[in-house]
Amino acid sequence: QFFSMAVIPGDGIGPEVTNEALKMIKKVEELHGGMKFYSEHFEWGCDYYLKNGRMMPENGLEILKDFDVILFGAVGAKTVPDYISVWELILPIRQKFQQYVNLRPIKLLRGMESPLRYKNHEDLDFVVIRENTEGEYFNSGGRVHEGTPYELAMQNSVFTRFGMERILNYAFTLAEKRKKKSLTAATKSNAINFTMPFWDELVKEISGNYPGIKTQLYHIDALAAYFVSRPEEFDVVVGSNLFGDILTDLGAAIVGGLGISPSGNINPERAYPSMFEPIHGSAPDIAGKGIANPIASIWSIGLMMDHLGHDHIGKLIVDSIEAVLVDGNIRTPDLGGTATTVEMGDAIISKMAQL
Amino acid sequence: QFFSMAVIPGDGIGPEVTNEALKMIKKVEELHGGMKFYSEHFEWGCDYYLKNGRMMPENGLEILKDFDVILFGAVGAKTVPDYISVWELILPIRQKFQQYVNLRPIKLLRGMESPLRYKNHEDLDFVVIRENTEGEYFNSGGRVHEGTPYELAMQNSVFTRFGMERILNYAFTLAEKRKKKSLTAATKSNAINFTMPFWDELVKEISGNYPGIKTQLYHIDALAAYFVSRPEEFDVVVGSNLFGDILTDLGAAIVGGLGISPSGNINPERAYPSMFEPIHGSAPDIAGKGIANPIASIWSIGLMMDHLGHDHIGKLIVDSIEAVLVDGNIRTPDLGGTATTVEMGDAIISKMAQL
Ligand SMILES: CC(C)[C@H](C(=O)O)[C@@H](O)C(=O)O
Ligand SMILES: CC(C)[C@H](C(=O)O)[C@@H](O)C(=O)O
């Protein structure tokens, strides 16, 4: 079975962690003779911008379009305003390729300790499904009266029935496959009084088609608090682009850190490539030092395998990561150790051969 | 010294906890002969709505306008859509009275244990300053193509130089008075690309006037994670209406729960009344049972005293709450005890007399 993969290492620690993920791809090919990856690298990102005045070539999306999957590192550097680097690279890929599902497991791995005093592995095992193409990430707004005391900026957000139905159906279907049969939707319909009440209506409407699923709407403020106080309640959590963004960084924190949590930007219909990337960003402060934690990037390969229909390999990758964490000897500095990015990657990959 | 106080107990557990706060007001008058409160009660809220088709009388704001302070309970009931109850009561008060500072201490009280495994009292003591009049809480948007597959809703947010300057100046001035001389601003300028870059610019511009303050901008997703992983870093945190809302519920969670955290909606110029209320909501599930925790409401009286220039009484109130928590015998169910709302209130008030 042959898959084509575009690799965009991007900025900061992106290339370092992506390297380890690529070693994992090699290992997968080795262990599972049937799978072959044809991969092509694209050095797009902030350095590319400094030379070319744009984050990727004009026909960048055209180039990516026919790949099965994209492996992404990270985006963002001090040299380019964030709203440019992001709106010219990662967001067009997510939005134009209809990667409307941003899937992010929040799972306390074996060998990891939660910063939450009384929570353990059984308490911390859920998935956040984040809408990934519309909502608050909408390139619409403006500014007026610049430089006067009357200056102001406005920004729009957009919630479509089309966009909400597809993400909610995905989330409910996932909830049906999981144990707790429960779905929690993030809202803020009390204050954000046009878009969010519409979201609530759709959550209720669509929940009618999934009678086996217990559905709960929580305001985002309360929900963020519950991630700390009662995470064991959650199974599938679904939220808008912004709320999903906040909840997943917070989710990463309660399971031990941003260095670990992966994400899939998925087009379930496979009409376009899906993209896999760590939740963490480019972390300029530690870039180039060889000490970034590659687990999030390697685990993203696990999500890629799930997406490609090879769940057993996805599971094997998570098992390998867990086994290394349980051993505990090899840990990057963010996990309290002194291992390098490469040592951590190597440990996981050699563990993989033993399982 | 004479103060006029409007009391709006509101919905759910609002009246129960407000009752205890009022007992505290009485105690303050008793212990500090100089202070006198003239108070008037307004039974506005969802029940009022069911009878009158509105959350408060048409001239409600007119009625409130000349009070020095407002004591607020909670708003929200299953009987009225949240966006109505909120937009017709609490938000008009905050916005029309230019209560642009929503001040929310995030402080682990003595006698309380943080749910964060390795964090103690020194690590958890900061203040969130939330913009309270504009931003994402902007009654502007619309919906089109209802009932068709093409239905969509849009919502605007608005950030003015006027609004941002005043909240940032307040936050920086507060930071100058505190120990760590540091200010953290929440942003999301990478994705929300019109309003948030403007916010960032103003943070940088205004920080120039406060050279003694170390200023840091974090994206809201990372910042939420840092509330869990390194809360000891924070001193004054400033954010937009929505970001401040999310951060303060999360903040309440890391210091032991929503039942404890108070807030002040402050008009620093005192051109209008300021309002004091618990962070928690109306909690319909436990309303009427007499088991709600009154600490947040009582502590709100502490913030009211600070605002009225009686910081020493404010401090005494917090000390009394802490002393009762340290004793540990009297705790409401949310704190693992069996005390009633009234018992908890009484304990704090009688402790106050002993300090
Ligand atoms: C009731 C609701 C509109 C309110 C808010 O979002 O401001 C509440 O959550 C709060 O924090 O005071
Ligand atoms: C880089 C940024 C725009 C992005 C987002 O907000 O989606 C990141 O935080 C993420 O979660 O993938």
Q: How would you explain this protein's 3D organization?
A:
The structure is a homodimer of 355-residue chains. Chain A has 355 residues and is an alpha/beta fold. In chain A, 40% of the residues lie in helices and 21% in strands. Chain A has helices at 14-31, 46-52, 60-64, 82-96, 161-177, 195-207, 220-229, 241-254, 295-307, 311-327, 341-354, and strands at residues 2-10, 36-41, 69-74, 101-107, 125-131, 141-144, 152-160, 182-187, 214-219, 236-239, 262-266, 274-278. In chain A, helix 1 crosses helix 9 (295-307), helix 7 (220-229) packs parallel to helix 8 and helix 9 (295-307) runs antiparallel to helix 10 (311-327). Chain A is globular, with a radius of gyration of 20 Å. The two termini of chain A are 23 Å apart. The mean pLDDT of chain A is 97. At the A-B interface, helix 4, strand 6, strand 7, helix 6 and helix 7 of A face helix 4, strand 6, strand 7, helix 6 and helix 7 of B. Strand 7 of chain A pairs antiparallel with strand 7 (152-160) of chain B. One 3-isopropylmalic acid sits between chains A (75, 86, 90, 245, 279, 281) and B (190-191, 221).
Share in β-strands of chain A: 15-25%
Largest interface: A-B, 69 and 69 residues
Name the helix and strand elements of chain A from N-terminus to C-terminus, one letter apiece.
EHEHHEHEEEEHEHEHEHEEHHH
Number of strands of chain A: 12
Structural class of chain A: alpha/beta
Estimated helix fraction of chain A: 40-55%
Number of helices of chain A: 11
Q: What CATH architecture label of the largest domain in chain A applies?
A: 3-Layer(aba) Sandwich
Output the radius of gyration of chain A. Answer: 20 Å
Domain Isopropylmalate dehydrogenase-like (chains A, B): 4-348
Family (chains A, B): Belongs to the isocitrate and isopropylmalate dehydrogenases family.
Organism (chains A, B): Siminovitchia fortis
Cofactor (chains A, B): Mg(2+); Mn(2+)
